[in-house]
């Protein structure tokens, strides 16, 4: 096992797929969000980097208004997403996060389509910065937004403070 991500709640021992299976139907709010964050960290510790990123995608899709108490302790996982990309263990499969987020943003559907689309573009921008050698998919015909466009859409469709949180992480990656 590898060290846990410092930006996510520590996973309980033995955590597995059942942590999210309980949410197949119904509530996708704060409890779902917490379960996704914790399970992402459990997957990460098992060297399942690509699956951990997908789990953070699910957390980003939780139905949160921005005033939930959990967000003060565990903000939207932009820092964890970047941390996963920067610290992927040697030999662990992470795939190509840049292409993943490009496709995800370009093919988003409801619920909260615009919010989730712009979060995917925000993660795409993080992937470009954290893993600059990864190529995009030139066959996927989609308009690539600028950082300013992403920030503006996060301000419009995200929760309060989200654009600043993302911009801060992007700046941190530049160091």
Task: List the topology elements.
Elements: H1 18-21, H2 30-45, H3 49-60, H4 70-73, H5 78-86, H6 97-106, H7 113-130, H8 147-157, H9 162-173
Helix pairs in contact: 2-3, 3-5, 5-7, 6-7, 7-8, 7-9, 8-9
Largest beta-sheet characterization: none
- N- to C-terminal distance: 28 Å
**How many structural units, i.e. domains?**
1
Question: Total number of helical segments?
Answer: 9
Uncertain runs with pLDDT below 50, 5 residues or more? none
Outline: globular
Number of strands: 0
Instruction: Estimate percent helicity.
Output: 40-55%
SSE topology string: HHHHHHHHH
Strand content: under 5%
Please state the structural category.
mainly alpha
What is the alpha-carbon Rg in Å?
Answer: 15 Å
What's the overall average pLDDT, rounded? 93
Explain what you see:
The two termini are 28 Å apart. The relative contact order is 0.13. The protein is 55% helix and 0% strand. The longest helix is centred in the C-terminal third of the chain and has 18 residues, at 113-130. It contains 9 helices and no strands. With 175 residues, the chain is an all-alpha fold.
Short summary:
By secondary structure, the protein is mostly helical.
Kindly list the characteristics that best describe this protein.
globular
């Amino acid at each position: 096992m590898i060290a846990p991500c410092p930006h996510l709640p520590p996973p309980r021992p033995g955590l597995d797929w059942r942590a999210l299976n309980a949410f197949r139907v119904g509530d996708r709010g704060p409890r779902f969000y917490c379960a996704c964050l914790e399970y992402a960290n459990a997957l990460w510790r098992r060297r399942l980097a690509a699956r951990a990123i997908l789990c953070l995608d699910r957390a980003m899709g939780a139905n949160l208004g921005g005033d939930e108490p959990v967000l003060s302790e565990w903000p939207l996982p932009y820092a964890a997403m970047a941390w996963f990309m920067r610290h992927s263990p040697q030999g662990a499969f992470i795939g190509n996060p840049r292409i993943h987020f490009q496709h995800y943003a370009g093919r988003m559907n409801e619920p909260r389509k615009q919010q989730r689309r712009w979060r995917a573009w925000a993660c795409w921008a993080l992937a470009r910065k954290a893993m600059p050698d990864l190529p995009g998919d030139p066959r996927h015909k989609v308009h690539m937004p600028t950082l300013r466009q992403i920030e503006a859409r996060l301000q419009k469709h995200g929760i309060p403070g989200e654009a600043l949180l993302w911009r801060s992480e992007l700046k941190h990656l530049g160091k």
